[in-house]
Amino acid sequence: MKLYFKQICLLIFFPLLISSCLEKEMEENLIISEDYIDGVFFVEHLDQGVQIKIETNKPAKFFPNSERQTFDIEESGFAELSLPQGVYWIDCSFEESPSFIETIPILIMKNKAHAIRTVGSLINMKQDHQGFALVLRHVDARIGEDKVDSPIPEWWKSCDPEVARQLNENGRRNGKKIGDAIKKLQIPIGTAISSEFCRAVQTIEAMELDLEIETDSRLNHENANPNDPMFEDVFDIIRENNAAGVQLLVGHYNMLEANPHRNLFRPFNMSDGFLMKANSQKELEFVGSVPLFLWSLFE
């Protein structure tokens, strides 16, 4: 009887033991840091420097990526250093599979909470896009200058660098970079509205999204815009939108002036932007800053 009981116990518990062992062996290699969200490791930028500690569920080693912007990191996944805002890349090799290298994007931004929400919104925008507006400053435009005293009627619409400042090649590359990321994320752009300046219109064209571009003088640069400040005009344009899909707006640096959210998306360089969302009552919410370097996450 005792022998029979032992056999029964073996039949019941041995498969469970084997199953438990197999589960442990098959457990995925994971990064378990709470700051690792949506495949991105988020770090709050601080002027005095940052501390980074990447934690994993199994033994792993970390080292700088050899091909992209990176930084020195200890094999343990710890780094303490001063870095500007940007996207950096760190490689990770788990002990049980050392030949497989996982590359981790590290996003360092001033407001981590907004950065987490912005990246999550962009990643999920293919499905959840209702009410979103992507507002950009035109890409790099360093050829020529605005001739505000030009005798040409509506000179600001000219694409002649002898009349108005125009995109340079770096600007066109940045426009394509943004457009490529939008296409990769499958963000459905419903409307594209630009200022009347050629450099703003051509920013959307450089994205190569095959969009019909509307122009609105309310988005114009201060050299051809009587409204100062004009950020409320930007907000009005967003509120007026009833089209399906994400609204894309391209304007100029004067969108920063007196903007209540300006401290959250400064310095607002050429090619930078910010993300807004309108609810069903047309109330606007600032989602987060979208600097040019953010799009590197989606290359």
TrEMBL record:
Family annotation (InterPro entries): His_Pase_superF_clade-1 (IPR013078), His_PPase_superfam (IPR029033)
UniProt superkingdom: Bacteria
A Pfam family per the record: His_Phos_1
Protein name per UniProt: Fructose-2,6-bisphosphatase
